Structure formats: structure tokens, C-alpha cells
């Protein structure tokens, strides 16, 4: 391996910009020592740009590392006529930082939406249970408003599933009488429950 390339010291071209451009050419050819020089020269600036956008130190460190890896991988795409290496690195750093922020925001929105769906589902289940319990309590209250024979007939038919004939046999009452009691009992229940037809 060759000796590390000293940045802006004793390199042809005079200025730091030219030296960094030359370093980038070496990086494009896979020179790891050149990349080390590039890294030392640009990493603090890249991190600063990213931190201003992301505003979280740990995430900014991650993004800055990703940017430096991009510089290594994309070194051959750098064109000196389009601007300095620092400008090119700044553009990549800013783009990566914005992408991270957008990704974090999208993730937060997804989590909020999921939490809202879970909350709504839980609320709907609780509301349904409460409504069922209230309906059951109202039915019990309304059943208490029936006469004893009406309540017996309705209870046997609707809660035990007996037919009119089976209710008549269980209560030892003529079938037409049972039908009348059930009809009257159901009308009273409907009125008590506030059901409109």
C-alpha cells in the first residue's frame, strides 16, 4: 500500500479544492488511503450538515456514515466541472438527512395510525359490550312489567326456544290462550323497549 496522501500539503494543484478533487479521483479507483484522507477532510462537515437536519446525534452519526459510504461507492460519478468535492458531498449529505427525516415521520404516522385503529377497535368492542349489557338490562326491566303469565310464556318461547304448543303444554294452558298472552306480552315489550314498527 502507498503512504497516506497528505491533504492540501505538498500536492500538485495548489488549492485544497484541487487536492480534494485529485483525492476523489484516487478514491474512484479504489484507493483506500485516498478515501481515508477524504474521510478526514469531509466527515466533520457532513456530520454538521446532517445534524442540522436530523437533530438527533445518534441518527446523525448513522446518516453521516451512510453518506461517507456513498462517497466511496459513487466516487466515479463525481465531476469536477459540476462543483467542488465538498459541494457534492454536502448535497449528498443534505439529501440523505432529508430522506431520514421523511422516513422517521412516515414511520411515526404509521405508528399513530395503527394506535388509532387499535384504540378504535378497543373502543368499539367496549361500546358493543356496554350496549349489549344495557339492552339486556332494559329487556329484564321490561319483562318485569309483564304479567306473570305473559312473562312465563315469553321466557319459555324466547329464552328456552319452545314452540307455542310446547309452551302451552308446559304451562298447562290452551294453545289459543298462550298465543294471546304472547302477542300481548310482545306488544308490551316492544312499547317498553321503544321499538317502532
Overview of this protein structure:
Belongs to the sigma-70 factor family. ECF subfamily. GO terms for molecular function: DNA binding; sigma factor activity. InterPro entries: RNA_pol_sigma-70-like (IPR039425), RNA_pol_sigma-70_dom (IPR014284), RNA_pol_sigma70_r2 (IPR007627), RNA_pol_sigma70_r4_t2 (IPR013249), RNA_pol_sigma_r2 (IPR013325), RNA_pol_sigma_r3/r4-like (IPR013324), WH-like_DNA-bd_sf (IPR036388). Residues 38-105 form the RNA polymerase sigma-70 region domain. With 197 residues, the protein is mostly helical. It folds into two domains: 16-109, Rna Polymerase Sigma Factor, Chain: A, CATH 1.10.1740; 145-193, Winged helix-like DNA-binding domain superfamily/Winged helix DNA-binding domain (Arc Repressor Mutant, subunit A, Orthogonal Bundle). The chain is built from seven helices and no strands. Helix 1 (16-28) crosses helix 2, helix 4 crosses helix 7 and helix 6 (164-171) packs across helix 7. It starts with 15 loop residues before the first helix and ends with a helix.
